[in-house]
Each structure stands twice: as structure tokens, then as C-alpha cells.
């Protein structure tokens, strides 16, 4: 059996998406690899088929060797994120004193919603959107209100204005839960769009909570803009994490960030929330942001290649599938409505092609007839997945 640790010595410049064999990946015990039987090729949940970046593996190995496995302390994660934000996005406004470490992005969102809204209040989302937005918000007794993206998969400001107006008309404290970059479409919102969001939100008294977990993952030529950096975004609350870009979902930690106008809100975060993040998680995320930049650049180049590959494969094998390579995330949102395989093509691809994709349905209105494919894998796996998808329809 091949030794997985061999891959950890891979140079940072090498494409991490080409390091692990299918045989190695199938030994994993995480959700992506253990939900379906072994004859199914999994390209669904947002885990990446990569070995850990070396600086992260080293930091974790050192911590384990030292028995440094106690409770977390300090602000190293937020400091590393502030430095990363400065370098990558030319944003100098991430103030460590306006941050809090939270267990993960979704639980961070829940805590931010508790700070700025009350049970029954509307939480506006741009569907189709990451399904847990519905689940976590519903479980918190807030009401999800949909403001569908436009046909170009960008924010539709006529719709948003209308939804904001209606949401703000009651005595409630509405919140806009923005996904930036957007999962599943990969839309990277521009500075102009985000500025317009901030203005509209102010006009209608809507608070903005923004999930920026995919921020580091943008295609060549695209620019991520932090919401808190745009004019009018000062009273927003953001959630960031190294977990998507460096595949650290199992090492729990994320950062909640308040703009200057939301500092008082974040200061009300109960102390016990800080008991949730894992010390090893914080060590891993900190190492990723501080020392994982070259590795990230290699990943981004690999994802650019994979987007081009997927487009070519679909043209060849499934020309009826609509696909516009996205500017952000490692996800591909595929329009399968012309395939004639019904509202839930993912079910057909799984049953007949033995390939697991995300059904578009749980992503809310606009998800019917779509599937989400995870591009963070090797070109070989993508090729086989598309061939299996095509065979499912024969
Ligand atoms: C937009 C978005 N938010 C949150 C999450 C989950 O993050 P966490 O595991 O930190 O809660 C994901 C995971 O894929 C995601 O895509």
C-alpha cells in the first residue's frame, strides 16, 4: 500500500489536485468518501482530493509531537487572516480587536444572526444557495426569504430591493445572508455590486451577514472583494475561514469579523462560543493563512485547468448541459434541464452512472434540474465522472 505521507513532501508549486490516487482517496473516512458504496465516484460535498499543504502538516505534526492539544488561546488566527487579507485583497481594514474565533462558519453565522435579529425575523438569501443556509436559519427560528439570483447568476437588484422593502416593512430586524463568492454558482461579486448591496441594506435598515468562506478561491483574472471593505459595508459582519481553500473542514475553526459599525454587536458574543473551536484547528488554519500562499496558488492553477477540462468534456460528451466556468469556488453548477432527465438529474447520474453529484433541489428555488459538481479533484476523476454521466443517459 502506498504511503500517503510521501505526498506531504510534494513541493508547494506542484498541483495538489494531482497528488493522490483514487486508491488513496478511497481509504479516507470522511463524508465525501464514505457516504456512497465504493463503486460510486464521489464529486459532491465540498471536500478537496488533495494532501495537506506542507506548512499545515508540519504545524499539526509539531503540535502533536509536543502534546500541544489543550484549549486555544490568543489571536494568531485572526492576525494571520488580517495579513493574508492585506496581501491578497489589499484590504488593511481587518482589525484583530474586531474579530472572534468561532467553531466554524455555519455556527458563526448562527451566532451573528442571534446578535442582530430575533426569532421570527426574516433572513434573506440569494437562491439557489448552499442548503445549510435554509437548515441553520430555520433551526434558529428565523424565516428564510428568497431573493433569487438573476439568469446570469448575479444578484438581481430589482428583486433584492423589493425583498428588502417587504422584509423591512414589519417591526422586524431583517438580515441579508450574503454568500460571497456564491455557492453553488461560483459568482464573485464585484466591488460595484457589493457597494450597491451596502447602500440598499442601509436604505432599508437591513443588516448584512456575509459568508466569505470561499474568498481565497478565485480563478485567474478574478478579484475577491471583502464586503467589509466597500463603502457602506462598515456595519456588516463577516465569516471567514481557511477551511475551504486548504481543506480543513475536519479541523474546526473560523473567524467572525465585525466592521467598525458592528463592533458593539460582536462584543456581545457570549464568551462560551469561544469554547467551540478546536486548538488544533486554529493551529492548522493559522499555518494555512500564514505559510500556505504558494500552495494555494498551485491549487488555483489546477482549478483553472479543471474548469477548462470540464467545459471541454461536457462539449464532447454532454453538449446539452449548460456550464459557464465560474470565477470563484471549486464548484461547477450544471444546468441539466435540457437533458430530459427530470427535476433531479443527480438521482439519475447516481443510479445509472454511479457518480455522486449534489442535487440542485436543496439549493432552493432555481435548483431544480441542476446539479453541483466538485472540481477539486484530479483531471482523471473529472474525466471519468463526465463519461459516467454521459453513460447514465444512454
Ligand atoms: C458557502 C459555505 N458556507 C459554509 C460552509 C461550511 O463551512 P463550515 O464547515 O466552516 O461550517 C460551506 C461548505 O462548503 C460553504 O460552501
Automatic annotation (TrEMBL):
Xref: InterPro entries: Aminotransferase_I/II_large, Class-II_PLP-Dep_Aminotrans, PyrdxlP-dep_Trfase, PyrdxlP-dep_Trfase_major, PyrdxlP-dep_Trfase_small
EC number: 4.4.1.13
UniProt keyword list: Lyase, Pyridoxal phosphate
A Pfam family matched in the record: Aminotran_1_2
Class of enzymatic activity (EC top level): lyase
Protein family (similarity comment): Belongs to the class-II pyridoxal-phosphate-dependent aminotransferase family. MalY/PatB cystathionine beta-lyase subfamily.
Protein name: cysteine-S-conjugate beta-lyase
Organism: Streptomyces longisporoflavus
